[in-house]
Amino acid sequence: MKIADHKAGHYQSFLAPAEQRLVRAIVIELPESVTPLQLTRIGLFGACVAAVALIGCRWSALWMPLIPLGVFLNWFGAALDGRLALHRKTADPRLGLVEHTFDLFSQILLIVAFGLSPFLSIESAFVVLICYLLFSAYTYIRAIVRHVQQMAYIGLGATEFRLLMALWPFAAHAMGIDETNDVGVSRLDAAIMILAGFAICGLAIKALSDARRVAMDESGRGV
Q1: What is the rounded distance in angstroms from the CA atom of residue 195 to the CA atom of residue 132?
Q2: The pTM is what?
Q3: 3-state SS string over 15-43?
Q4: Residue 59: CA atoms inside 13 Å, Cβ hemisphere, count?
Q5: Is residue 152 pLDDT above 70, yes or no?
Q6: How many Å apart are CA 123 and CA 164, to the nearest integer?
Q7: Buried b (16+ CB within 10 A) or exposed e, 175-190
Q8: Which of 14, 149, 199, 214 could form a disulfide with 9 if both were Cys (CB 3.0 to 4.6 A apart)?
Q9: Residue 103 phi, psi (nearest 5)
Q10: Distance of CA 167 to CAs 32, 40, 64, 187, Å?
Q11: Beta strands 9-10; 149-150: pairing state
């Protein structure tokens, strides 16, 4: 449940300490009229804004400023909805389900939109999407089985991922990258596939390590 992440989460990403201080400061200042569900909707709205802007960049670079704005709104809603529920002691598992579902579909929408933009091919976008879903699924499995919500891997979490999505269009534009013109596998595609391979191998190693730890714990209980 998302609203429990703030208690049980392992904030291991690089930006997590500063992010959590900022989130706590904002939550305290939010008016009573703002609800966690409203923040969840703001997060989804931000993802839609960024997605439309990404696709719009196929025809004009004037859409680009809307990308970081949309990603920021997505972060704002996703980062604050659960924290606000905890702060007001209104945490509800049903609300957590809605928050998680909206956040999951927001990220899927953004990744697919990147594949329809000039900044990433649709093939690379689906590779990124597969990796995202694999890591998300394993995170949820660990949360259920071991009651541990790992929010990041090798220092990279959802916030770092969003920051990359906000900055990459500008970097790609500056480097003259336009994946809509490429035929076949581009160098960017190859780089993403290699990184995805390393990421999946790392996840497999992590899963084997967790399985070994569980086996040792079970063996210890049997002695």
Answers
A1: 13
A2: 0.82
A3: CHHHHHHHHHHHHHHCCCCCCHHHHHHHH
A4: 4
A5: no
A6: 18
A7: eebebeeeeeebebbe
A8: 149
A9: -65, -40
A10: 33, 23, 10, 19
A11: parallel
